[in-house]
Q: What sequence folds into this?
């Protein structure tokens, strides 16, 4: 519990309140914050970390020629850097990035030693989300594609919500995986949603090698009880 000594100024506070600890020295008054521990059971974090660890070790078993092929693949596939430019991944980063996506959606047997030679067979063009027509709490999704998807690949659907309004505040940090649809299918119904609330959805194409396309996004409210 914090207490104030000899006055009411900020510099007179001693002790702790919640995660904050107030102290003073010759250098002045300081506030220390106790770090929040990682929520290790949240959203599959343990399995994600175990995949990364496994793939990092597996990389060491690959031949120099195979590792070099991943370096070449990374050079040919620059990633956006968040500032409007691009950056080049290392070979191991490219290997882990693609394989972790493949293993997450297709299972452990999807691991590939060699980098892919072809781009994804399809990519989403326009995603449409509308109130469902069958059951309360439904939203029907449909999308168009560039290319021709194949059944062995997947469409990954992610959802954010429920929200009180259609505004986009904090939407991007709330997306989570909700469904994987065969790569030759162009529609899906998401059920069990809160009536009258707003939901955002986004979709991307993921091939068997873990290559992903950019997301396309749409929003809707679910069907209401008649």
A:
């Amino acid at each position: 519990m914090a207490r104030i000594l000899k006055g009411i100024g900020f510099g007179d506070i001693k002790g702790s309140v919640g995660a904050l600890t107030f102290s003073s020295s010759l250098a002045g008054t300081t506030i220390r914050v106790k770090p929040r521990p990682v929520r290790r059971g949240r959203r599959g974090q343990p399995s994600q970390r175990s995949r990364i660890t496994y793939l990092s070790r597996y990389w060491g078993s690959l031949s120099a020629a195979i590792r070099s092929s991943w370096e070449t693949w990374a050079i040919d596939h620059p990633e956006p850097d968040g500032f409007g430019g691009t950056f080049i991944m290392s070979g191991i980063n490219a290997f882990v990035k693609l394989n972790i996506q493949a293993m997450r959606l297709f299972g452990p047997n999807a691991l590939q030693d060699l980098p892919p030679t072809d781009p994804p067979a399809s990519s989403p063009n326009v995603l449409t989300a509308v109130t469902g027509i069958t059951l309360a709490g439904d939203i029907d999704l449909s999308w168009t594609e560039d290319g021709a998807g194949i059944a062995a690949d997947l469409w990954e659907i992610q959802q954010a919500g429920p929200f009180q309004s259609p505004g986009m505040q904090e939407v991007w940090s709330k997306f989570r995986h909700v469904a994987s649809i065969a790569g030759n299918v162009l529609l899906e119904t998401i059920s069990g949603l809160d009536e009258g609330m707003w939901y955002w959805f986004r979709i991307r194409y993921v091939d068997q090698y873990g290559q992903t396309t950019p997301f396309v996004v749409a929003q809707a409210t679910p069907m209401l009880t008649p």
The CA atoms of residues 98 and 210 lie 4 Å apart.
